TrEMBL record:
Subcellular location(s) of the protein: Membrane
Domain of life: Bacteria
Regions crossing the membrane: 56-78, 90-107, 140-163, 172-190, 202-219, 240-257, 277-300, 335-357, 378-398, 404-425, 446-467, 479-500
Keywords, comma-separated and alphabetical: Membrane, Transmembrane, Transmembrane helix, Transport
Family annotation (InterPro entries): AA/rel_permease1 (IPR002293)
Organism: Sporolactobacillus spathodeae
Protein name: Amino acid transporter
UniProt membrane topology term: Multi-pass membrane protein
């Protein structure tokens, strides 16, 4: 595992900086040709949002939602129990490597089509309303469950710090209070929320540096080689080999590295969106990957009693910090992390409510007229905000549901990422998407291999999360085994039934504006192939 881990980390660094170099050359070439950013009118929408967000602000949105002080921390115990220290030393960089391919493919699409509809618009443009509808639904499933995962994780930390050994009821009450706070801020204080979101990115940087600095000063208990230890796992048995437990443990990193499409969603508010928004998508993953690895490495090397950390479950990170630092200083660090989670949850409700609003505006949800409503007093999608809050709370009522929530958010979000990346590959194969459709941020001849790797990883990831063991106690006598897969498949079946019985003939999709032309090209190419059966001539 040591040799494999070193190789993965080296490959990660080479790929990370190679993509940065390639994309930067493309951007510089476009600058030399005076390629300008396209305004929102090209998509058939009126420019209603103030376009004054700079490059750092755009990056900060995704960086705050990724929040390595949330995902990497709340699922620390889950990852540690599955794969032990190697999940941090090998698993984290392995996931970061493949997510960089996905982020690069999405950055290319952001540069080509910079609209707040983002993933939903991309799928509609490249595949038509049907693809757009399923993409929108998958993204909403991911958005709502990620709100639940973030705020329930925050509630777990806060209740543990407040009550010591909280009951499920105490955690649920804390969770409800946090959700109501976030919903209220988003409902009535959007100006305050915007300022808090900007402050959140700076707070995360400071928080990570403080934790790294303090743990380094107190001195790690293990050497670097401990990060590649593949001998510790509480989940292995005669029927569960270590390699499978390790793969399941990748959920820790995979759930953390989500939400970077937020930079694409805020492209309508970003100056020079065809360049700055894609950099926000890509760099938020790259920087989170680097600092997340350093944070996890220092914390893991500081563990003194691995068995106690493993037994702590969702509170494993708390126990690891207390072992390393202890006392009031350790408590202060844990409260600092909890506050970072609070910021992350606030941003997440802002992002998810906008997605629900945008999709409802195009009549993609039941009772769309309600969720597309905007408060005349506060100018916020108030009903959408409270809908997400209610569903997020209900999702966490049962015991042992945290791994299911986080797995569903990964499946939903990455499923929605897959569709437009795949559709763009299909359009390029058919000769519909050409070089003139690329934005200034693109990878030229690397584009297709990067997109193929991204699609393969997402397919592998969705299958892995679907078949991963997950038990949820519904009642005292009934436990739902393999809950994640069963719930996801059930939702897909219900969505398919709903689409073909109702939405198919009523959902027209979003405005495409000037991008209606590429959709027509794609449809015509499909019709020609259906008639002649001849391969596409490039």
């Amino acid at each position: 595992m040591l040799l494999f881990g070193i190789m993965v980390n080296l490959i990660l660094l080479v790929v990370m900086f190679a993509i940065i170099f390639k994309a930067n050359r493309s951007v510089q070439g476009s600058r030399a040709q005076n390629v300008s950013s396209e305004d929102l009118k090209s998509f058939g929408y009126k420019q209603e949002l103030l376009r004054d967000m700079g490059g750092f602000s755009n990056f900060a949105v995704s960086f705050s939602i990724i929040s390595i002080l949330t995902g990497a921390v709340t699922l620390y115990g889950y990852g540690f129990n599955q794969g032990g220290p190697a999940i941090m030393g090998v698993g984290w960089p392995l996931v970061t490597l493949f997510v960089l391919f996905i982020a690069a493919a999405m950055a290319e699409l952001t540069s080509s089509i910079p609209t707040s509809g983002a993933i939903y618009h991309w799928a509609s443009i490249l595949g038509g309303p049907r693809w757009g509808w399923f993409t929108g639904w998958l993204n909403i499933i991911g958005q709502v469950t990620i709100v639940a995962g973030i705020d329930f994780g925050c509630a777990g930390f806060a209740s543990a710090l407040l009550f010591g050994n909280p009951t499920h009821a105490q955690t649920l009450i804390t969770y409800a209070v946090i959700l109501v706070m976030h919903a209220t801020f988003n409902h009535i204080g959007i100006n305050v929320v915007s300022k808090l979101n900007s402050f959140s990115a700076i707070y995360h940087f400071i928080g990570v540096f403080i934790i790294i600095g303090v743990l380094t000063a107190f001195g790690p208990h293990h050497n670097v080689g401990y990060l590649f230890n593949a001998n510790f796992s509480t989940m292995t048995s005669g029927s569960t080999p270590y390699w499978f437990a390790f793969l399941v443990g990748l959920l820790q990193a995979q759930w953390t590295l989500t939400g970077y499409d937020a930079s694409a969603h805020t492209s309508e508010e970003t100056i020079d969106p065809k360049v700055r928004a894609p950099w926000g998508v890509y760099l938020s993953v790259a920087i989170s990957g680097i600092f997340g690895f350093i944070l996890l490495a220092i914390v893991t090397m500081s563990i003194k009693d691995p068995a106690a950390v493993a037994q702590a479950g969702n509170n494993a990170f708390i126990v690891a910090i207390q072992q390393a630092v202890g006392g009031w200083f350790g408590q202060a660090m844990l409260w600092m992390i909890t506050i970072a989670m609070w910021f992350c949850g606030l941003s997440s409700i802002t992002s998810s409510s906008r997605m629900v609003f945008a999709f409802s505006r195009d009549k993609g949800l039941p009772l769309s007229h309600l969720w597309a409503h905007v408060s005349k007093k506060f100018y916020t999608p108030n009903y959408a905000i409270w809908l997400i809050t209610l569903i997020a709370f209900l999702a966490a009522i049962f015991n042992n549901v945290y791994a299911v929530i986080t797995s569903l958010s990964v499946i939903g979000l990455y499923g929605s990422y897959f569709i437009p990346i795949f559709l763009k590959l299909r359009a390029k194969f058919k000769g519909v998407w050409t070089a003139k459709d690329d934005g200034p941020w693109n990878l030229k001849n690397w584009s297709n291999p990067v997109s193929v790797i991204a699609c393969v990883w997402i397919i592998f990831l969705v299958i892995l999360m679907t078949i991963s063991p997950s038990d949820v106690a519904i009642t005292g006598s009934y436990t739902l085994h393999y809950a994640t897969g069963k719930i996801f498949i059930s939702v897909l079946v219900l969505l398919t039934i709903y689409f073909f019985t109702y939405a198919k003939n009523r959902f027209e999709g979003p405005h495409l504006g000037s991008y209606a032309e590429i959709s027509k090209r794609l449809q015509k190419k499909d019709e020609d192939l259906a008639i002649t059966g001849d391969p596409v001539q490039h």
